[in-house]
Amino acid sequence: MLRRPHPRGPAGRLVSAGAALVLAATALVATGSGAQAAPGGTPADKIRPELVKQLQAKSESDFWIHFGARADLSKAGAITDWTKRGAAVADALRRTAADSQAKVRAELDGAGAKYQSFWATNAIKVSSGSLTMVQSLAAHAEVDGVYAPVAYELPEVTKGTDEKTANALEWGIANINADDVWSRYGVTGAGITVASIDSGVQFDHPALVRSYRGNNGDGTFDHNYNWFDAAGDCAAAPCDGDGHGTHTMGTMAGADGANQIGVAPGVRWIAANGCCPTDAALIASGQWMLEPTDLDGENPDASKRPHVINNSWGTRLPSNDPFMEDVTLAWAASGIFGAWSNGNSGPSCQTSGSPGSRSSNYSTGAYDVNNAIASFSARGAGQGGAVKPDISAPGVNVRSSIPGGGYGSLSGTSMASPHLAGAVALLWSAAPALVGDVAATRALLDDSAIDTADAQCGGTADDNNVFGEGRLDALALLDAAPIGETGTLAGTVTDAATGDPVPGATVALTGPASRQLTTGADGRYSSLLPAGDYQVAVTAFGYAARTLPAMVRAAATTTLDVALTAVPSVTVSGSVTDGSGHGWPLYAKVSVEGLPVSDYTTPGNGRYSLTLPASATYKLKVEPQYPGYQTVTREVVVGSGNKTQNVAVTVDPAACTTAPGYGYGSDGVYETFDGDRAPAGWSVVDNAGTGQGWRFTDTGNRGNLTGGTGGFAIVDSDDYGSGGKQDTSLVSPVVDLTDVAAPVIRFNQDLNWVSSERADVDLSVDGGETWTNVLRQAADVRGPKVTEIAIPQAAGRSGVQVRFHYYDATWEWWWQVDNVLIGSEVTCAPTDGGLVLGHVRDANDNGYVNGATVTSDDRPAQTTTTVATPDDTELPDGFYWLFSSLTGAHRFTAKAGGYVSQGKQVTVEADWATTATFKLAAGRLSVQPAAVSGTVRMPTGTVAKTFTVTNTGGAPVDVRFGERDGGFELLRADGSRVTQRQILAAEGAPEQRITAATSLAARASGKAASAAPAPAGPQAAPWTDVTDFPAAIMDNRVVSLDGKVYSIAGGNGTASSAKNYVYDPIAQTWTSIADLPGARNAVTAGVVDGKIIVTGGWGASGPDAATWSYDPAANAWTQKANNPAPRSAAGQAVADGKLYAVGGCTTANCTPMSNDVLRYDPASDTWEALPDYPKAVAFLSCGGIGGVVYCTGGNDGSVAQKAGYAFDPGTNAWTAIADAPADNWASSFAVANGKLLVVGGSQGGAITNAGFAYDPAGNSWSALPNANTARYRGGAACGFYKVGGSSGGFTATADSEALPGFGECAEAAADVSWLTVDKTAATLAPGEKVTVTVGIAATVDQPGTYTASVVITENTPYTVAPVPVTMTAQPPKTWGKLLGTVTGTSCQGVGAPISGAVVQVDSWAMSWTFATDDQGRYAYWLDKRNNPLTLIVAKDGWKPQTRQTKINTSTPTVENFALAPIRC
């Protein structure tokens, strides 16, 4: 049976249906009219498919109505007055919306619908409307579209690591040259207001509080016009429950001493928390920015709109919904610059998220400290093929403010966009003529950006879909701006009597530019200004104001010192106490309205003191810091003497239960239903016997719609679902109303009615024997609603009961009831007890502990948490208070993480505040020395260093020690050094894409193998050539064991091989080892417990089941259990000491591919079948990291793959991971440094030298430097060594090369191969110490400086810094340097270096190929055991030269070559 549609749905946080729009005269006019036919054809065409789909799934849905009429805002830019321009835009938008929406609003009002009307976008959002309603509204000619809601979100950011700062500057600030703008132009953003629509902001964060526009400068704040609570989280003041918004605002405006985190620390900021509860919250926030209002949403004022708005949010994919674009176009017309993040859905193309993807919005991509684009940074193109992002800015490991007063690093385009917003603020502060000129500003940004070529997603070197116009450069931006002649106005404000500086004085400048400055702690102010005449108005609390003229001359500093005269003052003091019955002292903020002066009372006695100018009348504002109390004002008349003003503050009756020591009472019964079950004395009757009755938990997620707060009673027919039936009563306890003369039943309710159900209120005066109906409801009674029923028949009766009866209900909506009174009045009455308050301190350093809990042992529910008190400078942190219902001597216990708990007896005084301070003991560690280092010689040098850890605290400490890699700086043969970051950021060789025949088969057929191999590309750092493999090889498998590289089996393209070789990076030679018992290629191989396990691979007749184990010490193979499902070209990985074989080929031709997954356990010599891989593929890349197997790519026989999956043995299941940047198969792959490296292979239909690395920690891919050779079906091992492979078909090669710095081969990413720690854990009693020995061994492939750290984790409340470990690895004694320069002498006799000359070095057993750099130089480490050497130097167009030389270990071997041209 079909369910009849509900005519209405739940109410949201919406305006009432009859709310009227306020209209104002305007200089701008509307285009279009209500009678104009909307584009889109028939009404059905206007209804978007997503909305139709939603309405088919549920009979009602929220939806948006968009109107075709547009305000003509084209003339707004000609209005030069900031206030008038903003007002004109807002007025035109309001008028257009009012005219075009009138008929639709009338229809909605007539239907009783809940909706919210907007004017910044000409739209209405309707709550819970039916398909019939949608069709009716779409029929209006003025409607041009009806849309489903859109889900926006804060992009997922990842926690980063702090990059090094320079002179306390964050790297991003220095990277965009913002600090150079500060020093060269003297501009930090003064006069500009920035805003964010985000998750909110911690307004009192130390780095943000000074630049908050609501900061009055005296410790008081005015949040009107400065904060919009779109999410309904914190109506009174800005807050941030997520942290995202505090971080982005810090990057725009933050500064606190050494924490120089903001691009424009001189700006003022405001905010809205519109992201992202709903799309309506976002649009309401965008609308508020055009005309900010007070906290009540009244008195809009366009003069207070911001200049720049940051928007670090969006959808994951482009969207064509018009609503937010309407708003942003209105911003631009109003002169507001909108900055947008481009999204974190990279690295694929076409991933820009909306609204950043819209061509009308200016969006930002993200790059890292090395100027490399972030893997997550979304790419274009955007809407209509527009280049996206527009520009790029720092967005990786960006350190900024986080809630709680701290700092942290995050990564995302969310972090890049505020760099752009801050740069625009600097620009507009320095160039007032540009303020409001959005188009000119965008053009300057485009022209001044640093061009950064990246054509992977289309575009040109100077404008592409990866970096946009390039990298943001704030200095170049201002250098290009029309700033004109400027000078500096500076001075000091002092006390006229004492000469002392006056900090916090306001210096307001009016003239060619307007500025409002605040003096620093030294009383100084300074600002770069356009030259001209100014009026300087100086004000400071307690001083008489002064206004002085000043002339600012071009290229000069004008000094204007101002001495202010203090006015006579008196002291106003007193105490603040409870006025509702307890009388105890209150902790409260006492401020003076309209003045920058305030004080907090002392919590233990309620005393306060204020110093105010004499002979005046003031209005004191008292704001209790305990919940539930009212804020009160008192007028105080002050003469020439001190004044005492005591204030008693009463509890707010509406918030009675939140006030400490108070509770609701009545002369009958009053119930708020705040538990999760029927309150004591109340009962639920299930008359239908279906188990579907009244409940006290909100399983349908409706929220309290009655107008009450907290819990409520509900019978939710809709949540019970189709086929349900409800006939249920909520019955009160028996109430004695003997002394009540005029009783009533009063309650809050929300009845969402459909058709047949009934909602009755019945009364019994005889204890439930008989019942009389007093209210019958058979229509909507939507909340918030207070219903009152007089029951005079119950006056003087002692057996009164009430029941709420819901019946005849079958899959309807719901009935909510709250705050039920049976009597005549609700009272707020004191309950017995007293306050306990004080601090929790650290017994080691006497500091204060935030986040500790203090609990009454005898009443465990009476507990609280200590907090910081940043606003009250006289009250230390670690403060707590709680209400104790027990008086007299009782035990209280304080606890905090890492501390030993303390319990103490506290004598609680009734109706007073009792002070109790706790001191918590904790262990505390000191480490000496703080760092260790050692110098060792490769390959066998070792050294041991120690550090000592001592417990200096008062409690035992459990200590654990671990390892963390820190990177390296390799020493090159020419004496230069290269860091890990430089290697990773390098582009490597030019990208190669070889379009050649490829094959999945075991070997060549016909002439396929006879094609000549592609020549090796030009040699380019950081990849280095290593000794060629002894034979041409492909389909070999390569592993790393004990610092050496083993190549197992493979083939030459026509036949499989049993030959195996080991490469010694020190000797730089390949040596043969025992042959495999049978010839194989494309085997599965891995290292477990010092042995090499080999299985599968192509044998003589297809995939072979034999499994062998190789022991390097014995140089022998041992046969093991046969593989039950042998495959060739399978993915291979080792995890938790077991070998995994994933997918692979089932025949000599490979197809069909397998999705089998097998695991071999060498300990038991057994095989085990595991859950299938999600795709049947071969030639995929796999690796084990941290006990998890990660795989990517492969080929299913017809299509290459880019998808990847992870297998967790703990869950025994495969889950998807991020797609690789490109489809890939037959790549060279290995695990190194905790990442899965994938290099070369076939990518996007061509054999390539490109590579990328997967990081499980961030589920992200990053680019690797391009290799020198483009090969597929080759092998690779940790190191990172790439051996053999084919450049097409079956043309096997001997080429081998290495990417230095990837030598961490342990499966656990935290393990450092060259470092050992002799202790993993210890327990230290107070005063006890432990000595840790750090072993440093030169088990690395390249000389240089290697860093790591010993991580110390412990159970104390303190942070213990890791112990840095530095190893200087000297080259082996057998190594020497071969270096030189290759020059060419032209036919005219002019000599010059030859770049890219090939230097081939042949020894008695091996050969290497190098290339000269841009200066014609080459330099390499070589082992003297390869002597003698033959050098052949060649370059196209030049005569080659050959000579012999030897490596000398004591002095470099220098071989310079001067080539002659082949012809002149």
From TrEMBL:
Matches recorded under SUPFAM superfamilies: Carboxypeptidase regulatory domain-like (SSF49464), Galactose oxidase, central domain (SSF50965), Starch-binding domain-like (SSF49452), Subtilisin-like (SSF52743)
Catalytic activity entry: Endohydrolysis of (1->4)-alpha-D-glucosidic linkages in polysaccharides containing three or more (1->4)-alpha-linked D-glucose units
EC number annotated for this UniProt entry: 3.2.1.1
Position of the signal peptide: 1-37
Keywords: Hydrolase, Kelch repeat, Protease, Repeat, Serine protease, Signal
Occurrences of domain Peptidase S8/S53 (ranges): 189-468
InterPro entries: Carb-bd-like_fold (IPR013784), CarboxyPept-like_regulatory (IPR008969), Gal_Oxase/kelch_b-propeller (IPR011043), Ig-like_fold (IPR013783), Kelch-typ_b-propeller (IPR015915), Kelch_1 (IPR006652), Peptidase_S8/S53_dom (IPR000209), Peptidase_S8/S53_dom_sf (IPR036852)
GO MF annotations, alphabetized: alpha-amylase activity; carbohydrate binding; serine-type endopeptidase activity
GO BP terms, alphabetized: carbohydrate metabolic process; proteolysis
Residues annotated as the enzyme's active site: D198, H244, S414
EC class name: hydrolase
Pfam families assigned: CarboxypepD_reg, Kelch_1, Kelch_KLHDC2_KLHL20_DRC7, Peptidase_S8
Family the entry assigns: Belongs to the peptidase S8 family.
Record PANTHER family: KELCH REPEAT SUPERFAMILY PROTEIN, OS02G0202900 PROTEIN
Name listed for the protein in its UniProt record: alpha-amylase
Species per Swiss-Prot/TrEMBL record: Micromonospora haikouensis
High-level lineage: Bacteria, Bacillati, Actinomycetota, Actinomycetes, Micromonosporales
